[in-house]
Amino acid sequence: MAVQHVTAAGSTVFSPNGCRVKSIHWVGGTTAGHLLEIQDAAGNHLYGSQAAGQYNEIESITDRNWPTGFKVTTLDSGYVDVETYDPGTSVF
User: Fold this and answer.
1) In this structure, are residues 55 and 29 in contact, taking their beta carbons and an 8 Å threshold?
2) Strand pairing partners for 88?
3) Distance separating alpha carbons of residues 81 and 8, to the nearest angstrom
4) What is the pLDDT along the chain (92 residues), one digit of tens a residue?
5) Half-sphere exposure of 16 (CA within 13 A, CB side)
6) 3-state DSSP of 20-56
7) Euclidean distance between the first and final Cα of the chain, in Å?
8) Angle 72-68-35 (CA atoms, 0-180°, nearest 5)?
9) CATH number of 2-84
10) Structural contact between residues 60 and 47, judged by C-beta atoms closer than 8 angstroms
11) Burial level of 10, CB count in 10 A (0-12/13-18/19+)?
């Protein structure tokens, strides 16, 4: 497993050759309404979440294939950890 720890939104594409995502963990959303958005390299929406209140923590257990990688385009507060399976690992 690999974990991308992201503390600020930006245009950096992680895993540009593609990845299979195991989980997304957003910690420290400080205010209700703060947003997290993850897009693919072309700017298409892959995942989003909205904080419910002070010190929001959200974890999404998933098994998603993101063939062009991902970038965190909105992160209003806190940080996000995106855990991916190692390349070549069978998850089924």
Assistant:
1) yes
2) none
3) 11
4) 899 999 999 999 999 999 999 999 999 888 889 999 999 999 999 999 998 877 767 778 778 899 999 999 999 999 999 999 876 555 44
5) 5
6) EEEEEEEEEECCCCCEEEEECCCCCEEEEEECCCCCE
7) 15
8) 20
9) 2.60.120
10) yes
11) exposed
State pTM to two decimals.
Answer: 0.87
**Closest to 24 (Cα-Cα) out of 89, 63, 80:** 80
Judging by DSSP bridges, how do beta strands 45-50 and 2-6 pair with one another? unpaired
Question: What distance lies between CA 33 and its chain's CA centroid?
Answer: 18
> What are the domain boundaries of the chain?
2-84
List the structure tokens of 8: 């600020």
**How far, in Å, are 49, 61, 72 from residue 12 at the CA level?**
20, 23, 8
